[in-house]
């Protein structure tokens, strides 16, 4: 039994009960202490962390990297046609001038000590990070997808800061593409959008005053200890423990990657959501599109899979955070994708009902608090994350991050398309990521082609699913 802080309270909890049938008792002392270990009567004070030390979340993500897991995300930027190729030296100069805004951009992660820490990179050269990717014959959309698939499979150099900007093109139609890779230990989805905003997008001479950044939420009000005691176990029961017998994506993966992309108009997604009695969100509509695409692509028809749940990351970055803050602060909701349901609107309504309940009851925040509390005892936290990450808990991860709402440009050329790609994991061989830009949502699909071939076919199935849902919702 462990005593662990949760916000301003203390939690006594059994790890086995956390994952299955949690029992929670709140003690009365508010100190941020942990009771446990070899001597259960020993209290260990939790002190303020070194700002250069990786957070528990960032260190955990760094530790996931392996021969087959690169650990980075990729943002694909497609620019409008220009006269000649993009000027590499001009882009290097522009990016280098703005790097001081993001201190982590010139730091590397030092793993020589007991805990990984950020440290200044010696002999930093912008040319090591902003470069032209030589891809002979890269002329078509398929060629571009193959080029970024290669980038997705290549590890970043840990002796340098963990990001790169690779120019690809010009393509056959005169467009240029830029692939931005950022290690997930450096930035999550919202933080990566901030990085693009601060470092890559052109600055306007007289920018309008900025409101809250897209995707940021107001800090949640403090709740009473009794309320906390009642909410957390219920959140665990809703989000975890719905164990399925088999996931179609529960397969070992190699280092190979295959990417495919598609787009949907953001106003249409909003219109589809607004057409429902409960006003489904854009994220609900995206999940319904994925569900319809998977239903067709997997060939399930009306025959139900044993169970298919999607893990949906939820950003917990707050509006009062520093604008340049990177790092990870997210949680998740697990959502059933009703593949056996033939009616696209019923699929959407069922997804909306489940996500609405989870958001109304703050399930993502409850899980964030719980896993961080358990993480104060390292082995307990690691065991809890392993159980929560089991393929029997969820089959695939589907993320959606709001990007720039207005048009943006790079070196004076407008961004026509923005896509996001996150890599799959062992026993979760498919990953789907969405990001918006100026009214267009770009969706990236990433698989290991050896474990799960034909991701292009899934992208096409999702396009058909969107058309089916739009036709049913907007008549």
UniProtKB/TrEMBL annotation:
GO terms for cellular component: plasma membrane. Signal peptide: none annotated. Keywords: Acyltransferase, Glycerol metabolism, Lipid biosynthesis, Lipid metabolism, Transferase. Its EC number is 2.3.1.20. Pathway: Glycerolipid metabolism; triacylglycerol biosynthesis; Lipid metabolism. It is an enzyme of class 2 (transferase). Residues 327-469 form the O-acyltransferase WSD1 C-terminal domain. Residues 204-224 are annotated as: Disordered. Residues 54-223 form the O-acyltransferase WSD1-like N-terminal domain. One of its GO terms (molecular function) is diacylglycerol O-acyltransferase activity. The keyword Transferase applies. Coiled coil: none annotated. One of its GO terms (biological process) is biological process involved in interaction with host. It catalyses: an acyl-CoA + a 1,2-diacyl-sn-glycerol = a triacyl-sn-glycerol + CoA. Belongs to the long-chain O-acyltransferase family. This is diacylglycerol O-acyltransferase.
